[in-house]
Design goal:
alpha+beta, three-stranded antiparallel sheet, five-stranded mixed sheet, about 350 residues
């Protein structure tokens, strides 16, 4: 009997071969996934040559997997708390969560009712409103309770986002080459999410010091008319050893018109004639395009996109999300170094 097979890449760098019979086999990058005219195709070759089609899919799977893991951890800490007090989980929830939830007042329910789009009179939906508000308050109380339990419990997450190989040989680097963490960002100076996360990246670098080396890659998006010239301007500033100062100023000021770029160069005391010539001549167009093409090869379609020791993160990220992966990778590199020394 033929058995259908689906290959799913895991965030841990392994893979799961699922079959209709329910069996699972771990795979590595040397695993042969196809043969074409007698020529073997390995998983590594598939990942390398078709990365633009696969990275986003791997990341979506990782996000679903991570959400399921977070839910499972929440269940585990509740179970451990209940067991320590000789209770069932339901008994624990009734005692510590549901008993603390207060019912809304009549006035509060009427305010809620006024926000509903319904033709039914208040009395007809009153019980449903009461139940809805009770559930909302219970969910909020449960989230706070679980958060407190997790703060008291040692929780180590080793599930990591999917990985990709990056070319950073000629890129600007903020931090030592020997840093344990290599943080690479593909971004666009006109992107509002990139502007927002810039302060988080700066805080992350300050908090971890020389443990983190930061590289910025240009990925100007087509809908942002001023982003490409801004990227060129930062590179022009690098010729006078002011790349990071100019980079930070662009995200801070958000002033990206050509005359504004030149004004910022003067404010940073750059040689105006040299800077203007570099910017006006398009001297850095090719360098910006190299970064953009690398991003496209990797399958990046939006900004900001981050790689932490090669592990991919994308979307509207914040400091907490970045810090979690950095700490995870620090722990992993420390364990590897400890194992190698034994």
């Amino acid at each position: 009997m033929l058995v259908s097979r689906i290959l799913i890449r895991l965030g841990l760098g392994a893979a799961l071969l699922w079959t209709g019979t329910g069996s699972g086999l771990a795979q590595n990058d040397s695993t042969v996934v196809a043969e074409v005219g007698g020529v073997k195709v390995t998983l590594a070759e598939l990942e390398q040559q078709e990365s633009a089609k696969l990275l986003s899919a791997h990341y979506q799977y990782y996000q679903a997997q991570n959400k399921a893991l977070e839910d499972l951890i929440d269940k585990k800490v509740l179970e451990q708390k209940a067991t320590s007090e000789n209770l069932t989980v339901d008994q624990l929830i009734d005692r510590d969560i549901k008993s603390q939830v207060k019912d809304p007042t009549e006035d509060q329910m009427k305010v809620y009712y006024e926000g509903l789009e319904t033709d039914q009179p208040y009395e007809a939906v009153r019980d449903k409103i009461l139940e809805k508000i009770r559930q909302l308050r219970t969910d909020k109380a449960r989230a706070a309770y679980v958060k407190a339990l997790r703060a008291q419990t040692t929780v180590t997450i080793v599930l990591a986002p999917p990985r990709a190989n990056l070319d950073v040989a000629d890129a600007q680097l903020l931090g030592p080459k020997s840093a344990q963490i290599k943080l690479v960002e593909f971004a666009d100076y006109e992107c509002p999410y990139c502007q927002r996360v810039a302060a988080d990246v700066k805080k992350l670098k300050a908090d971890f010091g020389d443990k983190v080396a930061f590289t910025y890659k240009d990925f100007p998006l087509p809908m942002h008319a001023r982003a490409e010239k801004a990227a060129e301007a930062a590179r022009c500033a690098s010729k006078q050893n002011k790349y990071w100062e100019f980079h930070d100023e662009l995200f801070h000021s958000k002033e990206l018109d050509v005359d504004q770029l030149k004004a910022q160069a003067r404010a940073l005391k750059l040689d105006s004639e040299q800077f203007d010539k570099c910017l006006d001549s398009g001297e850095e167009v090719a360098a910006v395009e190299r970064d953009r093409k690398e991003g496209l090869r990797l399958g990046i379609s939006g900004t900001p996109s981050f790689f932490v020791n090669g592990h991919y993160l994308s979307g509207a990220l914040d400091y907490a999300a970045l810090r979690q992966v950095v700490e995870q990778q620090l722990s992993e590199t420390t364990q590897v170094a400890s194992g190698a020394s034994k």
